[in-house]
Amino acid sequence: MSRLWSPQIQALSPYVPGEQPKILDLVKLNTNENPYGPSPKVIAAIQAELGDGLRLYPDPNADRLRATIAEHFGLTPRHVFVGNGSDEVLAHAFLALMRHARPVLYPDISYSFYPVYCALYGIAAEVIPLDADYRVRLEDYARPNGGIVLANPNAPTGTALTRAELEPLLASNRDSVVLLDEAYVDFGAETAAALIPRYEQLLVVQTLSKSRSLAGLRVGYALGQPELIDALERVKNSFNSYPLDRLALAGAVAAFEDRDHFESTRQRVIATRARVVNELTALGFQVLPSSANFVFARHPEREAKQLAAELRAARVIVRHFSLPRIEQFLRISIGTEAQADALLGRLGELLR
Questions:
Q1: In this structure, are residues 298 and 286 in contact, taking their beta carbons and an 8 Å threshold?
Q2: pLDDT tens profile 12-27
């Protein structure tokens, strides 16, 4: 540890992102990236921005993008906040809305950035266990809190709650923010965005990294009533008033405008997920119900860590978490049909 570091940083355990290996001909199924490229309209919009205008700062308010997102959800631009990936949006939300005397509540098995934000900002937290089926049990969140954070669909499990299941929580928990992290919602779950006009404490966070194939562009956004959005803007403008560059703004707008590409690619992922679940089950895996672009599976007769290593040796990479309760699971991103062929074929060989 450096003697020049702040004490809080010395004690911090940072988030560890999925590996981005530099190996040729790798079947890469470890980071939940979309296997299909972005809309050609996105590429054209970015190329149109490659000119003299890059010497100028981008729009700090992202007015056009906010208007586009607002129209998509039937809201107004005042209901929309944009940031450099949903991770930055989440970080601003924790700082702006979760630092209270009472603890933030989130599941014991969920996105591992949540405890990092709490540690970074000195936010008290209380971890709520998933049930025996690895699902969120909403009645466990009916307790005093300084905020509730739920990934829906959850990560890394892939399980999701319906909007009808979530609404009683919102109706009963009105004195603190309920943040729903919907990074994977477009692959089979219901967004809670339609509930925003009725619940002033609801903040919905989404990303263009997954269903719109723009993980490399880094665009995320939050939806909520203007009072919540104003709090996020205060943090942003105290930290980085130009979070999205001109290329990201142009590409993000085009991604929302090309609804046909969005719909066709997400349906291809959903179809391949169904096939992967069926064939993993036939191979003896236990697979949790998934509404995301990945599946969470374990084999009762094989150690997950060893199986992940054997797949890697066969040039297929999946994600393994050495964490309590889930150390026997593999998280497998849904790729193309050809990638699914490679994964399932090599798993079949290993299990035989």
A1: yes
A2: 888 788 788 877 789 9
